[in-house]
Design a protein that fits this description.
Length: 92
């Protein structure tokens, strides 16, 4: 019974619009349906990979290790900078 409540609450929380919803809508309006579907699949793949990492204990490892957390933060920042530069160059 508790699993049913858990799945129900996950379903309801997933329906709350957020940043990912805005990105998917923006991409769909900007480049069409196939691009929106690609953004959706990319978003869901990222969520799935993070969930699997959490299941297998990566979250605990990152919380326990300052070095791992710092490396992960730096990699994420580098990715965001690269994406920003790419968007800026494409806007020209």
């Amino acid at each position: 019974m508790i699993w049913l409540a858990f799945v129900g609450s996950c379903f309801l929380l997933a329906m709350i619009p957020g940043v990912s919803t805005a990105v998917i809508l923006r991409q769909t309006l900007r480049a069409g349906r196939s691009s929106g579907v690609a953004a959706l699949l990319g978003n869901e793949t990222g969520i799935f990979l993070w969930a699997m990492a959490a299941v297998f204990g990566l979250s605990v490892l990152v919380l326990a290790s300052q070095v791992a957390y710092g490396a992960m933060k730096a990699a994420g920042a580098a990715l965001l900078v690269a994406l920003g530069v790419r968007v800026a160059l494409e806007a020209r």
